[in-house]
Write a structure and sequence with these properties.
α2 packs across α4. The chain is 51% helix and 0% strand. With 88 residues, the protein is an all-alpha fold. It has helices at 23-30, 33-41, 44-55, 60-75. The longest helix is centred in the last third of the chain and has 16 residues, at 60-75. The protein has four helices and no strands. The termini are far apart.
Length: 88
């Protein structure tokens, strides 16, 4: 009775194993040594969530903007705001 078009629409149903930055995006991140070093120091769970945030953008413009934000935050040795705990 389950409708196929209703499958895989929720975040927990989607394949997050494929949540890796595409090669071109990874090269952009590697181009900034500080950002790349910070990226590699982060736990896999954060890298997966951050990568999914970037690649899940529907518009190419949004994708580029999110990638730029990720690179800038990594270069500043900080996580993306939505994945950081609020400071007390």
């Amino acid at each position: 009775r389950r409708k196929h078009e209703k499958s895989q629409i929720y975040a927990y149903e989607q394949d997050h194993q494929a949540a890796q930055l595409p090669e071109a995006d990874e090269q952009s991140l590697r181009a900034n040594p500080l950002a790349w070093e910070f990226w590699l120091q982060q736990p896999a769970s954060y890298r997966k969530s951050a990568a999914w945030w970037v690649i899940s953008a529907k518009k190419e413009e949004t994708h580029r903007k999110r990638l730029a934000t990720l690179i800038e935050d990594c270069a500043q040795n900080r996580r993306l705001a939505m994945f950081s705990r609020p400071k007390k």
